[in-house]
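ok so for the tutorial part 2 we go from a plain amino acid sequence to predicted structure tokens. step 1 is just haveing the sequence, like this:
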Amino acid sequence: MDEPRPAAATLPMSPPPPRTRRGWIVAVGLPAFLVGVAIAAHGPLLGALVRHRAASLGVELAFDRLELGAAGVRLLGVRASLPGVHGVRVAASTLHLETSWLSLASVEGQGVAVTIEGPANDRVLELASWSSDHPGTLQLHGSATDVRVEWRARPDIPAWLTMAGGTVTADGKSARLVAATSSAFGVPTGALSASVVVDAAGVTLEAGKKPGGEAPVIATLRTSAHPPELSVTLRPVEVAGLGTALGISLPAHAGVASGHVELTLGRAPAGTASLDLDGYVPAHPRALDGILFGKKTTVRSRLHVAEDRASVRLDDLEVRAGKLALKGSGTITEEGNRPGEHPRASSDDHAVIRLEIKGPIPCADLARGAASEELGGALGALAGELAGHAVSGSATVTVAIEADSRDLGAAKVKPKVGLGCEVKLPGF
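step 2 — the prediction. this is what the tokens look like for a chain of 428 residues:
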């Protein structure tokens, strides 16, 4: 029987070597260094996160300083713009973003200044497209104080709309701007308000409302439609004021304008437009007084907006004034842009309007007008009646119009008359 082997000898446990000074520095300094880096990087990383979140809401955001608090983030020296909406800039002295976990709960602003440049029709169309792309932004909660608004058609002219001492409140379903003082078209208008209502169907804007009155502009964006649809109604406003808002010089300096636009907002928006001018008929010779009479002119047309928004084609264009009813087509093309600029960025930009419309005029009315103008008085009236009974048929009038939006009153008008009149001889 084998004898048991003795246990193997073991070496005695030795204590760990003492940590060197360099080891202590690494062991303690590395975590401290990493914490310091995290603290130093926290500002830029948080700023990038805030800008990324703003971009997802359709807002390009910049700011001078960021402060992190228990309830959210405080931004100082804020500048904002909306991608695709040109000429709109927002600045705020302070913006507080209240957060709930990683979600934005509300926005509170102080010292907010909104500046808008460009024709009202361009900005409304761009804002409608932006709203349809970012419906969630309009459902944010928040408020703002000391709000100022300025809107001018071009950078080189005074603002046609100013609002000051304003407050904004938003509850997620509607937002309301109330200004203590305002001025429209150079005339003080006192307190004005604008409201935005968001529901399942879309967004409705009412702008320029006075206490106890109706808003002159109502715009409805139906985001539930595919593609979205925009409806804009203009209640009666002074013609001069309408021209100022659009950044154009209208041939009529008096009278009242109202209108309506319906557009489907695809890549190339299309729809219809109507404009009623009360107190205005086109300038004409006295010989056409029997045809161009009254104090109302109406314009109706179908619209086709180019994808780049730089031109509009007018089809089924119809102009009516008195007995005159002309139909045709035309184009509105933006020109005068500098190389590399967006089509609406330059103060020298303008639109060129080219129209060709035609229609019949009864020869009897032409004869009456010509005789009355030539002879005048009672004799002219009598001769006009005799001349009116002596002719029949219709003359076709074709009018070619080319105009610069900077001065529509200086439009080049080239009329052409194709005679189709017959003289009625007694006994034949």
